[in-house]
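step: validate -> pass
step: tokenize input -> pass
step: predict -> running
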Amino acid sequence: MSPTHPTTYELTAKGPGGTAEQSVTVNVNGTPTATLALSQPEVRYHKIGDKVVQQDSAMLNWSASNATQVSIQPLGNVADSGSRSIEATPQQTSTGPVHRDVTYTMTATNACGGTASRTATLHIVGSIDPAPPVTLASLFYPTAYPERRHANVGLVSSQEKALAQAATTFKNNEQYDQANKLMVVGHADIRGPKKYNEALSARRAEIAKNYLVSQGISADKIETKAVGVTEELTRQQVTDLQSKDSQSQPKWMANKKKATWLAYNRRVDVILEPSGQESTQAYPNDAPDARVLWQRPVPNLKVVESAVKTSSSGTENAQLHHSGN
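step: predict -> pass
step: emit ->
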């Protein structure tokens, strides 16, 4: 007999001598028991960019008796007793603080209709942060550099420093965002034929890429593009850029606006993809090699080579030769 509630069984026996009766009552305990507990009430979660840097876990332990079915939501049906590791998993995908409560509800039932319920709540705290920023600055080149015969000369010391900073911040960012790439776009000023300018801007982009690779960025993370004069800055744009520049503009730049306009267009822009973040187009007014970059005539090769190696202030007194772009 398997009674599901308190039941009295009665026996009646009849014979020649009369009737005998006996009864027995079976009491049924129809209430299951259940316990549910977490090894710790709070766990931490930290994500930077697309990389999870901390994801704690807690053990969810349970047991039940006098039950024919046990379930834990949101886990589903489980054995009468057991444990499971619960990882901190926030629902949000946007950046910001993480505060999430996940409640686990255990229900134990049996054929007698008895039910026992228990709950345990796990608190998830932490944050989702953006990947570290990438610092990008446009690079500027002396007139006509890099030359075809000296394709590796033209990235002077101050511009190498700006590119080195970009490389350092990109590598730091890359730890947390593997999708990012760099687009290096070469420009030229308006002087010279179209094909010459395109080839020159291509050399400018290529020397910048090679330097980035030398700083530890994989070559397949860098694309180059040569636009020649097709995307030049207008004189008004240059004026606007100068008005935003926190550095004081030297007189030799202020007094020769056309030369300054040309200098701003002898550059490489660096773009972070896929976000589209563009490099700042701030001219290195206070750099020791600024005048070598700015001067309208083509600097002597030795002067540029010296600026590449040392960026010494003596390079400002450059010996000039043929005009170029």
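step: describe -> The mean pLDDT is 91.
step: cleanup -> pass
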